[in-house]
Amino acid sequence: MPNDKNSEYLNVSSSQIMGLTEQHLTPLIGPHKLHRITIDAFLSMQKAAASENIDIQVCSSFRSFDRQLSIWNKKWRGELPLLSLNGEVLDTANLSDEQKIHAIMLWSALPGASRHHWGTDFDVYDRAEVTRRKHQFELVPAEYENGGPCAELSNWISDNAATFGFYLPYSKYTGGVAREPWHLSHKMVANKIISDFDLDSLLILLKKSEILGKEQILKQLPDLVERYTYNKGL
């Protein structure tokens, strides 16, 4: 249960949940911002990991609705690649609108429904180990397994993240988002946001937006949120 000090921070508005405003966020370092409760927990986890020579650093945190919309539309138009579950580049021109939606959401969230809007979710890597190896970091699963530069980090997270209130919402592929061993979420705050998530507000926002594939997205919006944002899969 949240203590009195943190309870006031648990109320996040619909606009904040959908990435339209940033009042719920606190600067971390550089461009990164997280929810206040998430930052406190992350810094405690980071300190504990450092004592075991694991350099947990954030490589992606809050993304606004507009930023997520830009990524979505570029992928829809073929300006950014669409990848299969195995990382193979797909031919955008040969995909139906339905297929495009699922190909995009395999690796990128729907604007307004991205967990990165919440400030509870962020991507991590072992900066020191990546630097030591002079590795060209790509944020792909292979870097977190089988001796990859972030493999020890991944093992440490599996063993210790829950102690600090974090979990891996995309720890395995279930028919929704591809496996993301780098994506951490503050469970208590994220679950509160999920309970407050307003599909009607998201529907109104997307209707007014310039998102490509809008008609097909709106037809199946509740299922897309369940399957991908909450990672309930098929």
UniProtKB/TrEMBL annotation:
Task: Report the Pfam families cross-referenced here.
Answer: VanY
| Signal peptide interval | none
Q: Where is the D-alanyl-D-alanine carboxypeptidase-like core domain?
A: 32-186
Its name, as the record gives it, is M15 family metallopeptidase
